[in-house]
Amino acid sequence: MLQHSDLVLDRDAIPDSEEERSQISAADDAALLKTMGYKPVLHRTYTLFENFATTFAALYFIGGVRVTFSTGIMAGGNLAYWTSYLVTMVFTFITAAVVAEVCSASPSAGSIYLWAAEAGGPRFGRLLGFVVAWWSTTAWTTFCASNTQSAVNYMLSELTVFNVDFPTETTDVKFRAIQWICTEILLALAALLNFMPPRYFRFVFYFSSAVVMLDFFLNLIWLPIGTASTWGFRTADEAFMSTYNGTGAPDGWNWCLSYLATAGVLIGFDASGHVAEETKNASVSAARGIFWSTVASGFGGLATVILFLFCAPTPDKLFAFGSPQPFVPLYAAVLGRGGHIFMNIVCVVALWLNTAIAIVAASRLVFAVARDGVLPFSGWVSRVHTGQPRNAVIVVWGVGAIITCTLLASNVAFTSLVSAAGVPSAAAYGLICLGRLLCTPKRFPKPKWNLGRLSKPFQFIGVFWNGWVVAVLFSPYEFPVTGANLNCK
């Protein structure tokens, strides 16, 4: 078992400047890691595919579209949803490219907080690193809790489908109690999966990616068949040009709120960077993993959006299902009870594996922050067992379990904590872009995977795009705003 003192090199041995560090020949991953001041203590097992799969599975594009679909339709309708998604794709790809370039220069565990420190330079690096460390740990731990609850919502939506005499409204404490118990169990099981040896856990990446693609192709093939035999396809005009205002906001802002749904689908692509210290040829593979998994997820999400726009019923009918997850009764209506149960099992398994991989990313971030002594009890949190930060996994599970307990008090209390989970990540992306643009425009270490002349324009775009996303994510979703609906997203 490696102690805290075994994780960090003598700081006097670290290059004094970014220019000097960029000139060091990093013949292997261990040498590059040492230039950042850290000893190589984590297992170096994963290849490009496992790194790619970390983000690909964490984003889970079809699940993200399914969770946010009703939100997007409420805010502007079909026309707003698909056009906003196209805009989101382009600007998220640009942001991911900037982040991938920064990752190539600093491929280590918990990368996003170190990227911010690098981007801030000698003057602002500590401040930016500290802020992003807390932002990102908050984002990832709350995501683990909320994502598990999403899986439970699929399970409990069967109560509506089978007309079980049990409350299905989140305002009922009995429903919230069952929701809480199921969420805690699935979260604990996802955390336990992270204690598998790396040579076995790598198959979790394979299986998770396979389930994501199974989910996608089942919808691509099965959903149109079921739709054709039930309520029929929406016309092209209905699918692409119809509008809707279900938020009560002024029409202009109602349209803007569609970005609350579309941006959420592709937030979290920094996951591949968090396992960079466990990836072979990390300076190239981790950067490629970030960028190409985001591109693959973006185009997969676009195909899913178009599919759902043609196959989903009218907004009034969709919202009338009265279920924690509207797609469960939708699948029941178009696929039949037997078909929709299989589809629902796929959704729950995919989300559970999604949570397990999110815990991977979150625990590596917690480990890295503790390695630098930022967290309380950093010495214990940063201990490494056989190349794995298992104590950090326990911390992520513990915090997620505590956050989930707020479900018992109030659903609004829970959504208050997790609805803004995407805000810290988007803010961190924008802050990294801003730091690269203003603080280290010429003194940043030269990465192996770089954007060349596009780097500066992409950084500029990334600042304003992520600023816009943060503004939308902070906005109330229901108007007029009251104390009861302020935190409802």
From TrEMBL:
<dbReference type="InterPro" id="IPR002293">
    <property type="entry name" value="AA/rel_permease1"/>
</dbReference>
<dbReference type="Pfam" id="PF13520">
    <property type="entry name" value="AA_permease_2"/>
</dbReference>
<keyword id="KW-0812">Transmembrane</keyword>
<keyword id="KW-0813">Transport</keyword>
<feature type="transmembrane region" description="Helical">
    <location>
        <begin position="252"/>
        <end position="269"/>
    </location>
</feature>
<feature type="transmembrane region" description="Helical">
    <location>
        <begin position="79"/>
        <end position="100"/>
    </location>
</feature>
<feature type="transmembrane region" description="Helical">
    <location>
        <begin position="290"/>
        <end position="310"/>
    </location>
</feature>
<protein>
    <recommendedName>
        <fullName>Amino acid permease</fullName>
    </recommendedName>
</protein>
<feature type="transmembrane region" description="Helical">
    <location>
        <begin position="177"/>
        <end position="196"/>
    </location>
</feature>
<keyword id="KW-0472">Membrane</keyword>
<feature type="transmembrane region" description="Helical">
    <location>
        <begin position="391"/>
        <end position="414"/>
    </location>
</feature>
<feature type="transmembrane region" description="Helical">
    <location>
        <begin position="460"/>
        <end position="477"/>
    </location>
</feature>
<dbReference type="GO" id="GO:0016020">
    <property type="term" value="C:membrane"/>
</dbReference>
<feature type="region of interest" description="Disordered">
    <location>
        <begin position="1"/>
        <end position="22"/>
    </location>
</feature>
<feature type="transmembrane region" description="Helical">
    <location>
        <begin position="46"/>
        <end position="67"/>
    </location>
</feature>
<keyword id="KW-1133">Transmembrane helix</keyword>
<feature type="transmembrane region" description="Helical">
    <location>
        <begin position="420"/>
        <end position="439"/>
    </location>
</feature>
<feature type="transmembrane region" description="Helical">
    <location>
        <begin position="341"/>
        <end position="370"/>
    </location>
</feature>
<dbReference type="GO" id="GO:0022857">
    <property type="term" value="F:transmembrane transporter activity"/>
</dbReference>
<feature type="transmembrane region" description="Helical">
    <location>
        <begin position="203"/>
        <end position="225"/>
    </location>
</feature>
